[in-house]
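Sample pair:
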Amino acid sequence: MKKNDDSQKKVGFISKDVASRTVNGEEIILDMAAGTYYGLNEVGTRIWNLLKEKKDLDSVSSILLKEYEVSPEILKKDVLKLANELKKLELLNC
């Protein structure tokens, strides 16, 4: 029996103390409260931009599956991993 997992249904909201900008195809994120900068690669930037559009993690994964050649299982795992890392850094509220 498959466990009911709603983790991909969560919508990530960018924290209010965060500013970001895309520079040369990569997202630069500033945590204004902590004064810390973070950078995301091309795929991380795409995920971030979809989250800024208020997409839930399932929608983000579905969109990325159309854009990248990757298995659905790996993609969903990677999207969730990044969302959890962003949440841990308090850049994203889920």
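The helical segments are 42-52, 57-67, 72-88.
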